[in-house]
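> Could you send the Interleukin-1 receptor-associated kinase 1-binding protein 1 homolog prediction when you get a chance?

Sure thing. Input:
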Amino acid sequence: MSSNTIKWFNPAEVYAQFTTGEEPEKREKATTNDKQDRKDIQITESAELSLAPDKARVLILCSSCKESVEEVKTSVNRRVEYILQTLKSYRIKDTCYKINRILTRQEKTYFYETEIIVEFSDFLKCEEVSNLLVEKLDETVTVSPPVFYHSTERLANLRCQACVSAVKNAKNKALQVVQMFNQILGPPITIREESYEEIMGTPNEHPETSESQKKHAHSFHDKIMQATVTVNMKVFVSFEIREKAIVHKRKK
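Output:
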């Protein structure tokens, strides 16, 4: 794994211990007796899940410099109107973009700048809109490369699923082991998070890949891979082991 890979999330550790609903004194005494008699199996397992980004953000910048306020605004607004019509033709809702306008003056010259920040859920549509604006508009309009990222809900779900998958893997391993000895796997006694790692980028990325090479990746595929998040979760789980009941058949 690359040493340059970004690690950027440090969650709280998960710990769970299952007990009965008895009174504290009785429960403590029962727990001591149970520990002496109880057989258990302890498993350490992990799970690794990856998630590609589901959002893309593009910054469109329109600027002009003239001696008259009316002229500079007219020049920029004409291009902004074309951009908004393009977004509308691709059925991009008003809630998916934000417009900021800045007017400044240096001596007798006015500088007017309008930035449009557009968020896409459809990456193909993002590519088509960006290419069209670059093709149709002049050098006064700048279209930034897309920045890919994850929505908050999908990222939270990924972290949750990594924990659940690690516990499931631990249960499956424990089940296979106890079945080898003709035993029954009981309920969990303890579930504890051992380690958690979250990285951005390709997990098997070559170690010699530099930050400058990452920044200058041009293809959509490369940018999506660089924004992909991989979560690795390791858990410790102990399960109770129960013996199979022996069934005696009656003699006829």
